[in-house]
Design goal:
Shape: elongated
Number of strands: 0
Structural class: mainly alpha
Helix content: over 70%
Order of helices and strands: HHHHHH
Oligomer: single chain
């Protein structure tokens, strides 16, 4: 009888330890998911708000909005009682419902320095990562993701064309034809290297 009680006590302790371990792992997984989604949301918001308006088409703005909506919906699944998330989802649904008639509110920001061009390139890389991740998660179809990756490459080319053109125009306005020529030649060289 005492042996059975000891065995039952040990089994009970093992079961409690196992259940505690499972509960801790579930909490850890949920916390990791929250952190990851918060980071993705921050990146989506940064891209949507700071991307230069001259490079944003209504279709691209719609994609950015859809990506943010996807992240917000996943966050809502983790934290159902968050009213801020519900409010933002409502706002994003209203924007997505506009379709291609969505208004691009990003301000035009000329690409006149190498630092600005680099910042926009980093935004494009972040957008590429978001599109890839959305395709991996099953939110975007593979064909749609491939389309947007091609579009991101095209936007990168447009970014460099604008940068080198602005560089050349600035040098011309300062009466420096040699520097202007160098800027335009860099642009032509960049275009030649594109597929």
């Amino acid at each position: 009888m005492i042996t059975l009680m000891v065995v039952a006590g040990i089994a009970l302790l093992i079961a409690i330890g196992y259940l505690n371990h499972v509960a801790e792992n579930a909490k850890l997984d949920k916390a990791r998911a929250r952190v990851e989604l918060s980071d993705r949301l921050r990146r989506c918001s940064e891209i949507a708000e700071t991307f230069p308006g001259q490079l944003v088409s209504p279709a691209l703005k719609l994609l950015m909005t859809r990506l943010e909506l996807n992240v917000m919906q996943r966050m809502q699944a983790l934290d159902k009682g968050n009213d801020q998330v519900k409010t933002r989802i409502g706002e994003l649904n209203a924007l997505v419902a506009q379709g291609d008639a969505i208004v691009v509110t990003n301000p035009v920001s000329p690409i006149q320095t190498e630092a600005k061009a680099k910042d926009v390139r980093f935004l494009l890389e972040a957008l590429h990562g978001q599109v890839t991740r959305a395709a991996h998660d099953g939110f975007l179809q593979t064909s749609e993701a491939k389309h947007w990756i091609r579009e991101i490459r095209n936007i990168l080319v447009m970014l460099h064309i604008e940068f080198f053109n602005n560089l050349g125009q600035a040098a011309l306005s300062q009466d420096q034809p040699g520097q202007a020529r160098l800027g335009f030649e860099r642009g032509v060289q960049y275009l030649r290297n594109q597929p």
